[in-house]
């Protein structure tokens, strides 16, 4: 299980990913708040992170890094057109988490073939498991 510092880091990273021109769209805010609630982070702490990001804390567990990448993919696809800049940004986030270049590319390529560009968790896990072994 991840500790509070790691949870705050995950949220901070997702907030940074969602921020466009220093703004977060309301749909993204609600999604991120839902993630905060799942992580047992209060709305006050979540709102604090929007203004004051915390330092990145690397997740040790490969499965936790996959879950975080999946959250970022979901956030990326929240009702907007995906720009090349956003694809580079999510790719770099994945690399920083220690995920394989090939797996990241495969997920980003495959998401186009799913409804609403949402890669099902079982597909995502299979992609990263194959590359991890």
In words, what does this structure look like?
The chain is 65% helix and 0% strand. The two termini are 22 Å apart. The chain has 133 residues and is an all-alpha fold. It is built from 7 helices and no strands.
> How many helices in DSSP terms?
7
The largest sheet is: none
What is the strand content?
Answer: under 5%
Query: Count the strands?
Result: 0
Percent of residues in helical segments?
A: 55-70%
Count of discrete domains: 2
Residue-averaged pLDDT? 87
Structural Rg? 14 Å
Helix and strand content put the structural class at: mainly alpha
Gross morphology is globular
What letter string, H or E per element, gives the SSE order? HHHHHHH
Low-pLDDT ranges: none
Calculate the terminal CA-CA distance, rounded to whole Å.
22 Å
């Amino acid at each position: 299980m991840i500790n509070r510092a790691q949870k705050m880091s995950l949220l901070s990273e997702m907030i940074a990913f969602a921020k466009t021109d220093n703004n977060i769209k309301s749909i993204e805010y609600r999604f991120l708040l839902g993630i905060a609630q799942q992580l047992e982070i209060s709305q006050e702490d979540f709102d604090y992170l929007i203004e004051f990001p915390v330092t990145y804390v690397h997740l040790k567990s490969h499965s936790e890094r996959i879950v975080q990448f999946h959250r970022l993919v979901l956030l990326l696809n929240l009702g907007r057109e995906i720009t090349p800049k956003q694809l580079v940004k999510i790719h770099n986030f994945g690399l920083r988490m220690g995920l394989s270049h090939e797996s990241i590319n495969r997920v980003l390529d495959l998401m186009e073939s799913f409804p609403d560009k949402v890669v099902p968790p079982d597909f995502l896990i299979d992609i990263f498991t194959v590359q991890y072994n």
